[in-house]
Amino acid sequence: MAQKTDVSAQDRKKRARHRGPRSAPAQESGELYAALDLGTNSCRMLIAAPQGPQFTIVDAFAKSVRLGADLERTGALSRASIERTIRALQVCAGKLRKLEVRHTRLVATEACRRAKNGRAFIEQVEKRTGLHLELIRPEEEARLAVISCAPLVEAESEHVMVFDIGGGSTELVWIDVSGVAADQRAEAVMRLDIRGWRRAGGPQDPTPGEARIVDFISVPLGVATLHERFDDVEDESARFALMSWYFEEQLTKFRPYTDLDVLDGVERFQMIGTSGTVTTVAAAHLGLRRYDRRKVDGLTLSVAQIETVIGRLMTLGPEGRRMDPSIGKDRAELIVSGAAILQTLIRIWPTDRLGVADRGLREGMLLSMMNREGALRLGNRHG
């Protein structure tokens, strides 16, 4: 996954677009690994086989289950949400049994962390589907997102911020790679999985050649929770402004927000966004009538292009967004809250472009499991 300094920036961008997982028939798969991410809105699973420094997708599942519907108001998972989700998980369990997958990691995130009946729901899932969901902490959620985005880190980047806008929370991780050789920076970010999750100023400073975490924050606001909080504001422009203001208020404990000197002397700062919001904005920019991951993952958008898309989304209004094929009915309701978060982030930090990643927890889990088992053939492997 390391990038070479003698490759042009244009070639590097093209290569990044093709570094993600590839699809293949099951019979070519070999040893299989599965990763399932149960979030506030969606249940998504990937089944894959290692292939060189990456992996090949054998089967996939994605379903909008709205597990966290009305969670902001009631503090609990509703019976209807639980039933929708368990039906989706039963499909996932069937796929795992059929393909006899041995290596699995199945995680639940913000909705189950916040709901007063979250752990009871996890127990119910195991009884009815046989699947054991692991309730992960925000730090682990962010770490997995970072690992999945490691191949998109550019050799010129000295500081990288990876953010993941979820349904119930948004994770931000700021990474300093200035002490790493340019052609080793992507792999140094990948090695965060091996070397551990360290903050700057912690009990152990990273050794030379390691990526350094400047700070991390998990904001308990995602597209669904932010939407629910301001759902009673009828004027859409006012709602957008309120959502942006309220989200920014939650960043006061994030060091790169309060101490902008973090960027002093940094020659190259890169932002990478991984979420349905970011990929939807990218698809809208490209004018895709049908979503194509190959065209979206690894794309770079300028801030001007992002702001143009957001402006158009707001002009379309609720009905126009539902009818727009590049947005889709499933995302039409929540894209405004996601856009408010996205615009806040690109406004706060001085960057002129954003890397788009159609990857996240599932890809991070797969890479982490395969790396731990020694199934990935990484160049210049460490540790």
From TrEMBL:
Residues 12-21 have a biased composition (Basic residues). It holds the Pfam family Ppx-GppA. Residues 1-28 are annotated as: Disordered. This is Ppx/GppA family phosphatase. GO terms for molecular function: pyrophosphatase activity. Residues 51-373 form the Ppx/GppA phosphatase N-terminal domain. It comes from Halovulum dunhuangense. The lineage of its organism: Bacteria, Pseudomonadati, Pseudomonadota, Alphaproteobacteria, Rhodobacterales.
